[in-house]
């Protein structure tokens, strides 16, 4: 038993029973086993192959979406409130008229051969303008991606000075072999989070066939996208703006829904020390169901086009103590809402 546990990641509990919960524990004779004192073979733990989503969607250069996407989402929520108020008013307007209160916007306007309610003429542009703005933002994003693909910069050179361990500062050196004229300041940070489990593993845990109706929260199957392991079906097409079809995995870095950032620092010629995230996270875990992912992010501010990001997965060793987090830091999950 001890020898077997030494080949696996330690126990941890992230979150609570009444909130988001990610837990890994081992049972011995049906009872939880305390494995905090077990010495693990780091070489065996580090040989585990990372999931395909890390290789395809969390490595290399990434762009930041047009800020209009975020503005439009906030605008839509306010527009829906106005629409509900208008519908409520139209519902009670006959009652107000019976009391002699004149109606507002209940008249009609003739356009061509048809009569339209005045409120419809007022609310129509409010409802359709977000769609026009999203289309315009997507076209700008596509043009930005085409321009970037024609001349992508050289990758930064990272030197990890000491093996990264969860809960300990990260020591590294960062060198930018190429600095372009439109680049401004550059900084480096690292962060940890939880990637979504593999879709097939979710179905297996729920004892459902993948060809049948998906459980609540998962969209129907789109084989061209998540058959190769790049999606679990919870994003519903809203994780990222329109992406260039030539780039497998896309050019927008999707934030992890459960994620916490560590320290950040301006890139310099000497040694850089980044403080760890405040919570007690475990090291890297790469299983089909639980995926604790660490990564380094280089953020380059540009004069135009938004910040440029470069991501590198970071295998992090586990600390000597079991990890426990009372409440997990939850994020939006949409690309335009991520601020590194």
Task: Draw up the topology in text.
Blueprint lengths: L1 H4 L6 E4 L5 E4 L2 E2 L2 E2 L9 H5 L5 H6 L2 E3 L5 H31 L9 E4 L2 E4 H33 L6 E4 L9 E6 L7 E13 L3 H7 L17 H4 L31 E9 L5 E3 L10 E2 L4 E12 L5 E6 L9 E3 L15
Parallel strand pairs: 1-16
Antiparallel strand pairs: 1-2, 3-4, 5-15, 6-7, 8-9, 9-12, 10-11, 10-14, 13-14, 14-15
Helix pairs in contact: 4-5
SSE-based structural type: alpha+beta
What gyration radius follows from the Cα positions, in whole Å? 25 Å
Give the N-terminus to C-terminus distance in angstroms: 42 Å
Number of E-type strands: 16
> What count of helical segments does DSSP give?
7
> How would you state the average pLDDT, rounded?
82
Give a quick account of the main beta sheet: strands, pairing sense, barrel closure: 6 strands, antiparallel
> Which of globular, elongated, flat, extended, rod-shaped describes the shape?
globular
Percentage of residues assigned to helices: 25-40%
Please sum up the structure shown.
The chain is of the alpha+beta class and 340 residues long.
Describe the structure.
With 340 residues, the chain is of the alpha+beta class. The protein has two domains: 2-65 and 153-337, no CATH class; 70-147, no CATH class. Helix content is 26%, strand content 24%. The chain is built from seven helices and 16 strands. Strands 5, 10, 11, 13, 14 and 15 form a six-stranded antiparallel β-sheet that branches. A three-stranded mixed β-sheet has the order 2-1-16, with no helix packed on it. Strand 3 (27-28) and strand 4 (31-32) form a beta hairpin. Helix 4 (68-98) runs antiparallel to helix 5 (118-150). It is globular and about 80 Å long.
């Amino acid at each position: 038993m001890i020898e077997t546990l030494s080949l696996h990641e330690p126990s941890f509990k992230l979150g609570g029973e009444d909130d988001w919960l990610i837990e890994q524990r081992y049972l011995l004779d049906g009872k939880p086993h305390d494995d905090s004192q077990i010495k693990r073979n780091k070489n065996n733990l580090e040989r585990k192959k990372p999931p395909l989503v890390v290789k395809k969607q969390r490595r290399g250069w990434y762009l930041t979406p047009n800020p209009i996407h975020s503005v439009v989402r906030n605008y839509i929520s306010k527009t829906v409130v106005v629409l509900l108020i208008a519908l409520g008013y139209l519902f009670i307007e006959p009652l107000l008229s019976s009391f002699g209160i004149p109606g507002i916007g209940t008249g009609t306007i003739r356009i061509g051969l048809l009569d339209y309610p005045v409120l419809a003429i007022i609310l129509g542009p409010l409802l359709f303008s977000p769609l026009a703005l999203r289309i315009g933002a997507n076209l700008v994003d596509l043009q930005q991606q085409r321009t970037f693909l024609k001349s992508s910069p050289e990758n930064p050179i990272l030197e990890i000075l000491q093996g990264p361990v969860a809960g300990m500062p990260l020591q590294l050196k960062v060198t930018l072999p190429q600095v372009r004229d439109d680049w401004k300041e550059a900084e480096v940070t690292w962060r940890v989070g939880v990637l979504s489990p593999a879709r097939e593993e979710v179905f297996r845990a729920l004892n459902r066939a993948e060809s049948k109706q998906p459980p609540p929260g998962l969209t129907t199957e789109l084989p061209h996208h998540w058959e190769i392991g790049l999606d679990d079906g919870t994003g519903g097409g809203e994780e990222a703006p329109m992406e260039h079809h030539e780039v497998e995995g896309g050019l927008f870095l999707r934030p992890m829904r459960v994620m916490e950032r560590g320290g950040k620092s301006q890139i310099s010629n000497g040694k850089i020390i980044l403080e760890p995230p405040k919570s007690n996270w475990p090291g890297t875990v790469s299983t089909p169901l639980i995926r604790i992912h660490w990564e380094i992010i280089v953020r380059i501010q540009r004069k135009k086009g938004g910040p440029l990001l470069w991501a590198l997965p970071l295998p992090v060793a586990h600390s000597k103590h079991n990890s426990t987090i009372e409440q997990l830091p939850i994020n939006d999950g949409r690309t335009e809402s991520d601020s590194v």
